[in-house]
Design a protein that fits this description.
five-stranded mixed sheet, 78 residues, Ubiquitin-like (UB roll), 18% helix, alpha+beta
């Protein structure tokens, strides 16, 4: 088993996250497993990019114990 830290955006299910935002997954899990567990609405998924440890990642990226997963808008400004 591995544990990853997930900063889930609003609108996603947090049922698989503990109180500190950690999720347990089987060895060999990929980012797509996290996306499925979060039950992210399709519209929201099209508007966000995902990073693992600060680097943009694709759904087929294999996860490692302790990885940090964050979501951010593809469009931002100030």
């Amino acid at each position: 088993m591995i544990r990853v830290r997930v900063t889930a955006p609003p609108g996603c299910s947090r049922k698989k996250l503990d109180e500190r935002g950690w999720m347990e997954l089987p060895d060999g899990a990929r980012l797509s497993n996290v996306l499925k567990a979060l039950r992210m609405p399709k519209l929201l998924a099209r508007l966000l990019m995902v990073s693992i440890n600060g680097a943009v990642a694709s759904p087929d990226t294999e996860l490692a114990d302790g990885d940090s997963i964050a979501f951010f808008s593809m469009i931002s400004g100030g």
